[in-house]
């Protein structure tokens, strides 16, 4: 078992060690500062004997270092270095995550954490419910005050029974050992964690939540940035806010109200356009081909629902319907209640000629293509093929 330098002092990033085993590209050492990942934080990378360490992982009691192309052998004393800038960013990000989740928990005590992810490219915490931006703002203010107050970050070991007594945040079902590592940040947060952290909160510099996205059945992912990255992003978002306010002819303080008004107006207009489109489609006059009513038309709209609804109605009455919708691209729907017309075959044959795509069933098929200049030609070819099928 290797001595785990990262547990003793995460600020050590250069060290000398002896090789204890070699298995292809995999090296184990008698001591290592390379963190194998844990607590949601990804593993370290760096250099070993001047070669890149591509991966570090824990397997049982061993820490395995992947070093492609090495020529090391058991007993060699080697010089190693962890990518410090990367490591330090991860340490700061992990400590910031503790503060952020702790702050959110203060605002919503019933909230649960689902997942943590801390990497150089992305930092987020997934919680089991949605959270409004006012709550996120309060949590950010709490975190940034804790950063400004330069709180100490301490690590200790407790047994499982102590965790509940001391009100330590922990997911005991994920912890197998009798003793648990606990990270305490001043008097504002305490949580069980196997990750590595900074010594003082001021090292984080700043935290900014810049995105909230659905994580499906898991809840919502709250993405955040730290340090200079947070400052740069805050400046960028501020500029976007000010430019948007200018474009809308409103004050930045009134931007949210203006956005709600625009959304309401858009919903009203969308509803009106949907009704108008439904009316146009319902008054569309068919042509008769061998006694079968064939409805066709091309419309400038992005409302595909009205198009598909009308196509379904025509199919159910025994007719054939060919509708083309044009917006940024071309969408095509063909339906058939006539046995002689195979909607899927006709659509595929025509769309292939125009480098488009399409498919479906005998009685209903859909497709599309990016070239809007060919929309009328597509409609003409579909009509021609339908007429041929009905005259057979």
Structural account:
This protein is 36% helix and 31% strand. It has 392 residues and is α+β, with helices and mostly antiparallel strands. It has 3 domains: 3-82, Elongation Factor Tu (Ef-tu), domain 3 (Beta Barrel), CATH 2.40.30; 88-248, Threonyl-tRNA Synthetase, Chain A, domain 2 (2-Layer Sandwich); 284-391, Roll (Diaminopimelate Epimerase, Chain A, domain 1). The strands form 5 sheets. A 7-stranded antiparallel β-sheet has the order 6-5-9-2-3-8-7. Strands 17-18-19-20-22-21 form a 6-stranded mixed β-sheet, with helices on both faces. A hairpin with a 2-residue loop joins strand 7 and strand 8. Helix 8 packs across helix 9 (375-391). The protein is elongated and about 90 Å long. The model has no long low-confidence stretch (mean pLDDT 93).
What would the keywords be for this entry?
seven-stranded antiparallel β-sheet, 392 residues, single chain, six-stranded mixed β-sheet, Elongation Factor Tu (Ef-tu), domain 3, Diaminopimelate Epimerase, Chain A, domain 1, 36% helix, elongated, Threonyl-tRNA Synthetase, Chain A, domain 2, alpha+beta, 22 strands, 3 domains
């Amino acid at each position: 078992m290797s001595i785990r330098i990262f547990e003793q002092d995460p600020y050590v990033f250069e060290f000398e060690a002896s090789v204890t085993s070699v298995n292809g590209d995999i090296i184990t050492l008698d001591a290592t500062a390379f963190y194998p990942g844990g607590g949601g934080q990804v593993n370290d990378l760096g250099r070993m004997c001047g070669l890149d360490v591509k991966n570090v992982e824990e397997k049982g009691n061993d820490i395995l270092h992947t070093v492609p192309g090495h020529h090391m052998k058991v007993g060699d004393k080697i010089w190693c270095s962890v990518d410090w800038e990367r490591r330090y960013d991860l340490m700061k990000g992990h400590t910031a995550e503790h503060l952020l989740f702790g702050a959110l928990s203060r605002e919503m005590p019933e909230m649960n954490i689902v997942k943590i992810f801390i990497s150089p490219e992305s930092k987020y915490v997934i919680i089991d419910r949605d959270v409004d931006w006012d709550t996120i703002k309060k949590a950010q203010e709490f975190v940034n005050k804790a950063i400004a107050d330069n709180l100490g970050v301490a690590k200790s070991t407790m047994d499982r029974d102590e965790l509940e007594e001391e009100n330590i945040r922990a997911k005991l079902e994920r912890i197998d050992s009798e003793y648990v590592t606990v990270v305490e940040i001043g008097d504002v947060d305490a949580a069980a964690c196997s990750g590595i952290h900074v010594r003082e909160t001021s090292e984080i510099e700043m935290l900014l939540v810049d995105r909230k996205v659905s994580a499906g059945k898991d809840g919502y992912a709250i993405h955040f940035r730290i340090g200079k990255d947070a400052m740069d992003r805050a400046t960028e978002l501020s500029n976007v806010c000010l430019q948007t306010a200018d474009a809308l002819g409103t004050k930045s303080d009134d931007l949210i109200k203006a956005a709600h008004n625009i959304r309401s107006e858009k919903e009203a207009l969308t509803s009106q356009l949907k009704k108008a489109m439904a009316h146009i489609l319902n008054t569309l006059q068919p042509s008769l081909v061998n006694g079968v009513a064939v409805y066709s038309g091309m419309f400038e709209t992005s409302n595909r629902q009205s198009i598909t609804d009308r196509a379904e109605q025509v199919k159910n009455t025994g007719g054939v319907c060919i509708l083309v919708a044009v917006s940024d691209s071309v969408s095509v729907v063909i339906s058939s209640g006539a046995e002689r017309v195979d909607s899927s075959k006709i659509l595929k044959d025509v769309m292939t000629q125009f480098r488009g795509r399409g498919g479906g069933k005998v009685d209903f098929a859909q497709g599309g293509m990016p070239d809007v200049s060919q929309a009328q030609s597509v409609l003409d070819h579909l009509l021609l093929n339908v007429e041929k099928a009905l005259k057979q």
